[in-house]
Amino acid sequence: MRAEQGSIRAGGEPILEVIDLVKHYPLTQGILFKKQVGAVKAVDGVSFELAAGETLGIVGESGCGKSTVAKMLVHLEQPTSGAIKYKGEDITKLSGRGLKAVRRNIQMVFQDPYTSLNPRMTVGDIIGEPYEIHPEVAPKGERRRKVQDLLDVVGLNPEYINRYPHQFSGGQRQRIGIARGLALNPEIIVADEPVSALDVSVQAQVINLLDRLQAEFNLSYVFIAHDLSIVRHISDRVGVMYLGRLAEIGTDEQIYDHPTHPYTQALLSAVPVPDPMAREYRERIILRGDVPSPANPPSGCRFRTRCWKAQERCELEVPLLVVPAVFRLTDTAAAHDSACHFAEEKQVVPSEGLLEAPETEPVEPGAPEEPGGPGEPAAPDDAAGKGDGPAPPSGGAHAD
Ligand SMILES: Nc1ncnc2c1ncn2[C@@H]1O[C@H](COP(=O)(O)OP(=O)(O)OP(=O)(O)O)[C@@H](O)[C@H]1O
Ligand code: SF4
Ligand SMILES: [Mg+2]
């Protein structure tokens, strides 16, 4: 039921509407005759909306179901139940041509730029691969130019079109992954931990690139990460997941400065704070115990086995993801969806700005992002083959 799982009242018509999404993976026993003995409840009733041009951040500990949500959004996994509406149409029910058309508009950027790019394919083939399935976007004769434009857009030298992934640094590989995500001119990008595998300084560069591309192409992002500071930097709204469900969701100000769910407060209390004064002021909340198994989640509130505020009601009654009654008639930032029977506002991190990801200068042409990049002397000399293609477009700052 949608009202139970926190629909989001974003301004205007949502481009994407996720309604009570569930993914259970069957647990089976037996070799010859497999018998289902249970299920891993990876995602167990998640609802949210995404407005055009907006970024929704999704955070939560490992195993809480973030990637499973992402995979269902891009149709890499079929939901057990629930709906994913793209511009009002439930895409979980689509097949054939209808599905193909929608898939074009929702693309994914993966976590690990080291394993998500085929090492035997050139960068040009990797970025241009989606055109094999969607030739209508770029007929054969135009593909090379299109791919070079995309390389330029993500800040890479278009002359590197014939190079292989191993000739690029991690940040540059992630730029290649982003270029591939953009190839079909999508409206929505689902980015699953797109910077987690990168060095901190390179993370900020890739985040800045995503910011710029969003403004340039009016993209909507679902941005998944562990790191709450990175999520704040890029998100308009943030959803906090715990054990297959959303615990709290709201604008970045509501979640970071006025969290009301104990789990969000605990996560925030662990965020590194650079200012020593602010660090002293902040209260650390140490969570006891481990995350329970998603095959056997606790009754009532899933967070109750680790929550310092848990009472009998928490065991008996599932808390709904709604604006808690105590804040319902108030006009404060605490009045946002939170799945807690005893929601209370608690500012964990002292003031705005402390959690911002470091800003970086744009990458200058010729300056490698990190050692080992193609700009380094060790890299093969111009594997793209000089004079092999049209002159690179000028004006872009290339991470080469
Ligand atoms: N194909 C599968 N079969 C069975 N269980 C699965 C499968 N894929 C994921 N799971 C389980 O579902 C749960 C959620 O996994 P998921 O990968 O979505 O978590 P996550 O939040 O992305 O974690 P991380 O932060 O580590 O990437 C985990 O318990 C995981 O073991
Ligand atoms: S419902 Fe109870 S157990 Fe769950 S977060 Fe709130 S106080 Fe804690
Ligand atoms: Mg994941």
Automatic annotation (TrEMBL):
<feature type="region of interest" description="Disordered">
    <location>
        <begin position="346"/>
        <end position="400"/>
    </location>
</feature>
<dbReference type="InterPro" id="IPR017871">
    <property type="entry name" value="ABC_transporter-like_CS"/>
</dbReference>
<keyword id="KW-0067">ATP-binding</keyword>
<dbReference type="GO" id="GO:0005524">
    <property type="term" value="F:ATP binding"/>
</dbReference>
<comment type="similarity">
    <text>Belongs to the ABC transporter superfamily.</text>
</comment>
<keyword id="KW-0547">Nucleotide-binding</keyword>
<feature type="compositionally biased region" description="Low complexity">
    <location>
        <begin position="363"/>
        <end position="382"/>
    </location>
</feature>
<feature type="domain" description="ABC transporter">
    <location>
        <begin position="16"/>
        <end position="268"/>
    </location>
</feature>
<dbReference type="Pfam" id="PF08352">
    <property type="entry name" value="oligo_HPY"/>
</dbReference>
<dbReference type="InterPro" id="IPR050319">
    <property type="entry name" value="ABC_transp_ATP-bind"/>
</dbReference>
<dbReference type="InterPro" id="IPR003439">
    <property type="entry name" value="ABC_transporter-like_ATP-bd"/>
</dbReference>
<dbReference type="Pfam" id="PF00005">
    <property type="entry name" value="ABC_tran"/>
</dbReference>
<dbReference type="InterPro" id="IPR013563">
    <property type="entry name" value="Oligopep_ABC_C"/>
</dbReference>
<dbReference type="InterPro" id="IPR027417">
    <property type="entry name" value="P-loop_NTPase"/>
</dbReference>
<dbReference type="InterPro" id="IPR003593">
    <property type="entry name" value="AAA+_ATPase"/>
</dbReference>
<protein>
    <submittedName>
        <fullName>ABC transporter ATP-binding protein</fullName>
    </submittedName>
</protein>
<keyword id="KW-0813">Transport</keyword>
